[in-house]
């Protein structure tokens, strides 16, 4: 199961999100982002995390929420793991160069912005919740080959191969359009299955199926 | 060299007018000693979101995704460079950092 086994939420959040925690951002969202907090509104990392939280809530409406309310702690850990990953992915991370065309130009995109792009592209595929995404390779070198890993949860009943290919294609497309990365592969790993059961018993089950570009 | 309010405001307005630029975030000084950081902060006009580090202008933007980010970065560089030099600021480089794609 994709979860908190490889992340330590409390230890990493404050610096990652410009002094805020993912819980604070969730509370801010719950309050309708009122009153305005400039330290959140003016933080790219916080905005990346908030956007991911909004999409997670939309996609999980009626399933993960029910799981959080009724299920065993394992489910809460799963949701917690996704939140922890959002927190980690939203941080700025490494500077990824864009191709300059003038000697006075040094354009870069943050790794956090790219991870957010990847997550956004995957989240729009119906029946899918993005659990984690990462960039593997020396992204600080222009033209260095990079592998993109996207880990998913798929709702029960949704054709896994088809949605995995949809996610792979969407991620490859957005990276080709919005970055200068040389993407060697987009690896899509289906790690969890969200079972469609009546309200109270939706449990993410561990699966591990990988499609490679 | 420091940025005065008028120059900083002109640079910010020029960058925000670039198609595809949605946000202008506060540029922080790069890593270095406390003295270096203090000097870099001094290169930024009060309240300004752009920073001048010696002869390097730092700009951090968010884009709306309507235009490919690399093109937006190039256009932001050109707009910032033109606005700065138009106000008499000599620049060796403009560092444009995209921190978010909407």
Radius of gyration of chain A: 17 Å
Radius of gyration over C-alpha positions of chain B, nearest whole angstrom = 13 Å
DSSP E strands of chain A, number: 6
Beta content of chain A comes to 15-25%
In the CATH scheme, the class of chain A would be Alpha Beta
CATH architecture of chain B: 2-Layer Sandwich
SS class of chain A:
alpha+beta
The name of the CATH topology of chain A is: Alpha-Beta Plaits
List how many beta strands of chain B DSSP finds. Answer: 4
Order of helices and strands of chain B: HEHEEHE
Describe this structure in words.
The complex is a heterodimer of chains A (213) and B (102). Chain A is of the alpha+beta class and 213 residues long. Helices cover 45% and strands 24% of the residues of chain A. Chain A is built from eight helices and six strands. Chain A has a four-stranded mixed sheet. Chain A has a two-stranded antiparallel ribbon with strand order 1-2. In chain A, a hairpin with a 7-residue loop joins β1 (95-97) and β2 (105-110). Chain A is flat and about 55 Å long. Chain A starts with 8 loop residues before the first helix and ends with a strand. In chain A, 44% of the residues are buried. By secondary structure, chain B is α+β, with helices and mostly antiparallel strands. Chain B has a single domain (5-101), classed as Alpha-Beta Plaits (2-Layer Sandwich), CATH 3.30.70. Chain B is 38% helix and 25% strand. Chain B has three helices and four strands; from the N terminus they run αβαββαβ. The mean pLDDT of chain B is 86. The interface between A and B is medium-sized, with 29 and 26 residues. β2 of chain A pairs parallel with β4 (93-101) of chain B.
Question: Which features would summarize this protein structure in a list?
Answer:
heterodimer; A: 213 residues; Alpha-Beta Plaits; 4-stranded mixed beta sheet; two-stranded antiparallel ribbon; 8 helices; 24% strand; disordered N terminus; B: 102 residues; alpha+beta; 38% helix
């Amino acid at each position: 199961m994709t979860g908190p086994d490889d992340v330590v939420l409390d230890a990493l959040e404050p610096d990652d999100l410009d002094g805020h925690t993912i819980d604070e951002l969730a509370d801010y969202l719950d309050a309708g982002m009122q009153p305005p907090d400039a330290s959140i509104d003016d933080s790219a990392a916080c905005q990346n995390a908030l956007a991911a939280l909004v999409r997670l809530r939309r996609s999980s409406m009626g399933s993960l929420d029910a799981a959080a309310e009724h299920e065993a702690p394992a489910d809460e850990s799963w949701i917690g793991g996704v939140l922890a990953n959002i927190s980690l992915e939203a941080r700025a991370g490494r500077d990824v160069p864009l191709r300059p065309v003038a000697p006075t130009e040094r354009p870069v995109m943050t790794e956090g912005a790219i991870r957010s792009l990847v997550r956004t592209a995957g989240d729009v595929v119906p029946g899918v919740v993005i659990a984690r995404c990462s960039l593997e390779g020396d992204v600080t070198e222009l033209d260095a080959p990079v592998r993109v890993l996207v880990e998913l949860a798929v709702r029960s009943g949704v054709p896994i191969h088809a949605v995995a290919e949809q996610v792979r294609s969407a991620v490859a497309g957005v990276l080709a359009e919005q970055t200068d990365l040389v993407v060697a592969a987009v690896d899509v790993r289906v790690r969890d299955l969200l079972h469609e059961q009546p309200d109270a018993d939706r449990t993410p089950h561990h699966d591990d199926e990988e499609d490679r570009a | 060299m420091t940025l005065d309010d008028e120059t900083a405001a002109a640079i910010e307005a020029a960058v925000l007018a670039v198609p595809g630029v949605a946000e202008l975030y506060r540029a922080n000084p790069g890593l270095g000693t406390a003295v270096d950081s203090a000097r870099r902060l001094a290169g930024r006009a009060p309240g300004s979101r752009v920073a001048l580090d010696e002869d390097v202008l730092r700009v951090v933007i968010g884009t709306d995704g309507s235009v490919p980010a690399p093109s937006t970065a190039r256009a932001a560089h050109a707009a910032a460079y033109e606005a700065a030099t138009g106000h008499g600021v000599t620049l060796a480089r403009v560092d444009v950092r995209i921190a978010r794609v909407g």
